[in-house]
UniProtKB/TrEMBL annotation:
UniProt cross-references to Pfam families, sorted A to Z: PhaC_N
PANTHER family xrefs: POLY(3-HYDROXYALKANOATE) POLYMERASE SUBUNIT PHAC (PTHR36837), POLY-3-HYDROXYBUTYRATE SYNTHASE (PTHR36837:SF5)
Source organism of this protein record: Metapseudomonas resinovorans NBRC 106553
The protein, known as: Poly(3-hydroxyalkanoate) polymerase
Keyword field contains Methyltransferase: no
Biased composition annotated in UniProt, kind: Low complexity: 1-18
UniProt domain Poly-beta-hydroxybutyrate polymerase N-terminal: residue ranges: 107-276
InterPro entries: AB_hydrolase_fold, PHA/PHB_synthase, PhaC_N
GO BP terms: poly-hydroxybutyrate biosynthetic process
GO molecular function terms listed in the Swiss-Prot or TrEMBL record: acyltransferase activity
Sequence segments annotated as region (Disordered): 1-34
Keywords (A to Z) from UniProt: Acyltransferase, Transferase
Length: 597
């Protein structure tokens, strides 16, 4: 199945999720960056957050082997190589003569400066670069390499071409040259200082964010609540309702282990937690502990049993016999394991309805048509397990570095230009500060996630055991509301649709016009927001999109509020205090575990 973004069709059957990531930034007016370059930088980076990707490292041997495929192509097809070299030289003659029509993609922000077209030298340099890149790609495509070899060769060629882009040089980037003159050389001096700091403090990669303005519990993660339960693996936060009445059935959230929970509570105007509080829902959110090497043995079974503890606490505090649950990204993977465990034990009655945000349970589909998928081989999986087993954890910083090299223009070279060539500080933006506040994965949980890629147990009953129980998702009977994002590169929207299909034709699927995190952090008020919503009755996602009806303008949050309200039981007076006699408040939200680094 193709994993590309859905395309536009004729006017009579229009379904038009956008072809590029949304540039929405829910910020206060005074917080906008002062220059356009950083404005665009934030918009791009907001759709490239780490989340659950990647769990498999691209090894040096894999890159060397991929580069070897380029040499293999030259050896096997010297005549084709010569022909493409001749084509490049012919284009160079046209460029020198001013007769070339080669031009960058209008969406390529690297070459948006008018000087790339108005200055004859820069225009010729850019055209030479683009012509060489195009001819190399055409040569690789024309060879007789196997499809996987060809794709890996293209990846290495793209890495090389991205690094050699003339926009990355201080001598040929027109914006950098102008700023050098305008600041009397100070921009270059600042850039050199920042480069030195990043070599020492960020292992040589340019910093993506200035996190200093953001303080957890002070100006982000400020929703009012209490820690009502704590064990060695998680804290359970209960958030105070803002309505006079609350629904009888509480909602328990399972956030990703790979990130800290407060992506859904960045600021009051875009806090999903506060939206839920305002919806009359009694909300409990798990805050996972940031593990260290001593916790290397924590695995998927342990995390699933943590969900059972959280559910039991929420039931005891509220007096409800059951709960609704929410799983985001890898937190949804844990939720599925928990639901399968409950079903196997005959305790499925504990959970009535579920919400799933940007979560793919058909694990291999999350890698389809992705760069990382090119390198997800049995050998790579074994090597990834061995690496985290030696260290005891998989570092969030290591994951972030690998993810950056999967998308170097967005996550490396953009910041290279901003930080070093222009001498700007990295942008100060809450989503990027959250993304930079990485966590670690215990070695066992990392290994369990990698096994899911190989076994795909949620689609293949009996291939996964959780705490001694065999998991069969066909036995799980819950209401389901599933959200995907049109430009999500991490959990593709088609894969998220597969999650909805696991729960039957009555499951509701919602497709939001955004990327991975932005499809979740999607408060009402943005006039560019829209979504589709319909039962997941079609066999494949493209057919579902065709039959989903008219697109709905605005955020999907009000749509979910109505859905969850219909499934949350009676309306009762809101509790005057959080917790209970058995589970008294331990400390205010956001708690203590979220502070651990």
């Amino acid at each position: 199945m193709s994993r590309s973004t859905p395309t536009s069709q004729t006017a009579t059957t229009t379904k038009r999720p956008p072809a590029t990531g949304r540039k929405r930034r829910a910020r206060k007016d005074g917080d906008l960056p002062e220059n356009t370059y950083q404005h665009e930088l934030i918009g791009t980076a907001s759709n490239q957050t780490l989340a659950g990707n990647p769990l498999v490292s691209v090894r040096a041997a894999d890159l060397a082997g991929s580069a070897g495929y380029l040499l293999k192509a030259l050896g096997k097809s010297p005549l084709k190589a010569g022909a493409h070299l001749g084509g490049y030289l012919k284009e160079l003659r046209a460029i020198v003569g001013g007769n070339s029509s080669v031009a960058p993609d209008p969406k390529d922000k690297r070459f948006a400066d008018p000087a790339w077209q108005s200055n004859a030298f820069l225009r010729a340099l850019l055209q030479s670069y683009l012509a060489g890149q195009s001819e190399l790609n055409r040569f690789i495509e024309s060879t007789n390499l196997a499809p996987l070899e060809k794709s890996r060769a293209q990846f290495v060629a793209a890495l090389l071409a991205d690094a050699l882009a003339p926009s990355n040089s201080p001598l040929t980037n027109p914006a950098a040259l102008r700023k050098l003159v305008d600041t009397g050389g100070m921009s270059l001096a600042r850039g050199i200082r920042q480069f030195g700091r990043d070599v020492l403090d960020n292992r040589g990669l340019p910093a993506q964010v200035d996190s200093t303005p953001f303080k957890v519990g002070e100006n982000i993660a400020t929703a009012k609540g209490e820690v009502v339960f704590r064990n060695e693996m998680f804290e359970l936060l209960q958030f105070a309702p803002t309505t006079e009445n609350v629904y009888a059935r509480p909602l328990v959230m399972s956030p990703p282990q790979i990130n800290k929970y407060y992506a859904i509570d960045l600021s009051p105007e875009k806090s999903l937690i506060q939206w839920i509080q305002d919806s009359g829902v009694n909300l409990f959110v798990i805050s996972w502990r940031n593990p260290t090497s001593e916790h290397r043995d924590w695995g998927l079974s342990d995390y699933a049993l943590c969900l059972d503890q959280a559910v039991n606490v929420a039931r005891r505090i509220t007096g409800s016999p059951d709960v609704n649950m929410w799983g985001s990204c890898s937190g949804g993977i844990t939720l599925a394991a928990y639901l399968g465990w409950l079903a196997a034990r005959g305790e499925g009655h504990k959970v009535a309805n579920t919400s799933w945000a940007v979560c793919v349970l058909d694990m291999p589909s999350a890698l389809d048509d992705t760069t990382l998928g090119l390198f997800t081989t049995p050998a790579a999986l074994r090597a990834a397990k061995a690496s985290s087993r030696r260290k005891g954890v998989l570092s969030g910083q290591d994951m972030a570095r690998m993810f950056a090299w999967m998308r170097p223009n967005d996550l490396i070279w953009n910041y290279w230009v901003n930080n070093y060539l222009l001498g700007n500080k990295p942008p100060a933006f809450d989503i990027l500060a959250w993304n930079n506040d990485t966590t670690r994965l215990p070695a066992q949980l990392h290994a369990d996630y990698l096994d899911l890629v190989q076994q795909n147990p949620y689609s293949n009953p009996g291939t996964l055991e959780i705490a001694g129980e065999s998991i069969d998702m066909t036995r799980v009977k819950v209401g389901a509301y599933v959200v995907g994002g049109t430009t999500d590169h991490i959990t593709p929207w088609q894969g998220c649709y597969g999650t909805a299909r696991l729960f039957g034709d009555d499951a509701t699927y919602v497709l939001s016009n955004a990327g991975h995190l932005q499809s979740l952090v999607n408060p009402p008020g943005n006039p560019k927001s829209f979504y589709y919503a319909a039962p997941a009755a079609a066999e494949n996602p493209e057919t579902w999109l065709q039959n989903a009806g008219e697109r709905q303008q605005g955020s999907w949050w009000p749509h979910w509020r109505e859905w969850i309200g219909q499934r949350s039981g009676d309306s009762l007076p809101a509790p005057k205090k959080l917790g209970s006699r058995k589970y008294p408040p331990l400390c205010p939200a956001p708690g203590t575990y979220v502070m651990e680094r």
